[in-house]
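Q: Ribonuclease, please. Structure only.
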Amino acid sequence: MDLSELERDNTGCCRLSSPVPAVCRKEPCVLGVDEAGRGPVLGPMVYAICYCPLSRLADLEALKVADSKTLSESERERLFAKMEEDGDFVGWALDVLSPNLISTSMLGVKYNLNSLSHDTATGLVQYALDQGVQVSQVFVDTVGTPETYQERLQQRFPGIEVTVKAKADVLYPVVSAASICAKVARDQAVKNWQFVEKLQDLDADYGSGYPNDPKTKAWLKKYVDPVFGFPQFVRFSWRTAQAILEKEAEGVIWEDSVTGNEEGPGRITSYFLNEGPRARSRLPHRYFQERGLESATSL
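A: Structure for Ribonuclease:
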């Protein structure tokens, strides 16, 4: 799998895909959705789709695809290579979501990892449709409540039969194939991660990447900077990372933080105009004082 595009820029979302088999633009297709790397505190999360014509589903099953978690790395790579060889009827696409994107998304109001997962899966199904794939059935390994997720997808794609199940990567071969694509991509992304930070004598032995792994925790403690925090390889919104930051990093006091008995935020214009109770007690920020700038009372 060619991840050179990700290696050039691993700060956001990178989409990779195979060519669309001609038969998939002519015949009804089944499509599976799965992910890899949802739980780790290190590295990206990868969402993948795999699809093939309903008439060739038995050929996909004959590859003996299985849930990627039950396969060794070499077995996953062998099966992915086999799917690539069968590119005349098997297609795939995936989104690699960087740790930085995951963590900054978590800062949004009422937007969590489940929401990010749902939106990414929906986007990949839509991408297949936009590429001309004649999707008639979709099978998804659930995130959250299967019934709610299935209803949401069914409303989004009313002309497609949608099935969302727990353990779908075990139950449906096309989802197993998607899980293999996702896991192969994540393994390669982690192994070849390009650190934008200049880390001296980088230790690449960070364990499984999961928060409860002692080796992963030790790596996080070793590479936390007291001022700048973690490298972008780390999902800084994870509790494990936050706990280390609180203990190892320097505290920050904002000059205009609310302290004491000051009232909370008022109208947004009060931050720019001399109005409200804050105007009487709060001096302008030093930036404005040093430059002789005053607030405008009229435009």
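A: Brief note, in case it's useful. The mean pLDDT is 87.
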